[in-house]
Amino acid sequence: xxxxxxxxxxxxxxxxxxxxxxxxxxxxxxxxxxxxxxxxxxxxxxxxxxxxxxxxxxxxxxxxxxxxxxxxxxxxxxxxxxxxxxxxxxxxxxxxxxxxxxxxxxxxxxxxxxxxxxxxxxxxxxxxxxxxxxxxxxxxxxxxxxxxxxxxxxxxxxxxxxxxxxxxxxxxxxxxxxxxxxxxxxxxxxxxxxxxxxxxxxxxxxxxxxxxxxxxxxxxxxxxxxxxxxxxxxxxxxxxxxxxxxxxxxxxxxxxxxxxxxxxxxxxxxxxxxxxxxxxxxxxxxxx
Length: 288
Known about the structure:
It is a single chain. By secondary structure, this protein is α+β, with helices and mostly antiparallel strands. 53% of the residues lie in helices and 20% in strands. The chain has seven helices and ten strands. The strands form two sheets. It has a five-stranded antiparallel sheet with strand order 1-2-3-4-5, with helices on one face. Strands 6, 7, 8, 9 and 10 form a five-stranded antiparallel sheet that branches. Strand 3 and strand 4 form a beta hairpin. The longest helix is centred in the N-terminal third of the chain and has 61 residues. The radius of gyration is 33 Å and the shape is elongated. The model has no long low-confidence stretch (mean pLDDT 84).
C-alpha cells in the first residue's frame, strides 16, 4: 500500500507515461501493419507488454491507497472551509464597519439593516434578501462583491428620488383602480384591496411620459416587489397622508396567504430588518 502523497503522484506519473507509450505503440501498429514490418511490429508488442506490466503492478497498490488519500484531502478541504468562514466573516464585518454599518446574526445567516444574507459555504455563494424577499442569488462568497451588491441595491433605492407625498397620491389612485378590478374585502366599513393588485396598478401609474406616449418594452420601467415594500415602509415612517386626508393601513397576511407570493408583500418595521407580510391595503379617514 502506498501511503505517501509523493509516492502516489510518482505512481500516477508512471501510469500516465505507460499509458501514453501503449497508445503510441498501438497507433504505430495500425499504421505500419504489413508483412514487410512484421519484426518491427513484434518489437512494438513487446514494448506494450513491458509498459502494461508496470501499469498492472501499480494499479492494485493505488486501488488500496486512493480511498485513504481522498479521505485525507476531504478532511483538509473541511479544515480550509472552516478557516475560510472565519476569515470571510471577519473581513465582511470589518468592511461594513468601515461604512458605519453593523453586521448582525450568526453564520450562515447574517443581517445588515434591511438585508439578510444566506451564506452557502457548501457551494460558495450567497443569497441576498430584502427581509423575506429574495432579490439576488448565487452571489460569490467574496466580501467585496457582497458589499458592492448591497451598495447597488441602496443606489437603486436612492436614485429614484421619490417625492413620497406625490407617491401617496398615486398609491391611493392605484388603490381605487385595483378595487374596481380585483376581488376586494370590506371590514368595519373599510375596503381592503389585495396588495399585489395595487402593485400592478401602481406600476403603470409610475411609468414615464415616454411610456404612456409609446408603451413599448424599451420605455417600460420595472417596479419590483421589494421596492414596493420599501416604499410602503417609508410612507409609514414619514407618516405621509394620502389625498382627502386618508391614512394608509396594512392587513397582516394569514398563514394561507403567505403560501403564495402573489398574495402578500413583505414590509419592514424598521432598518433592522424586522417586518411582516401583508396581504391587503386599506385607507381610513384620519381622526382629528
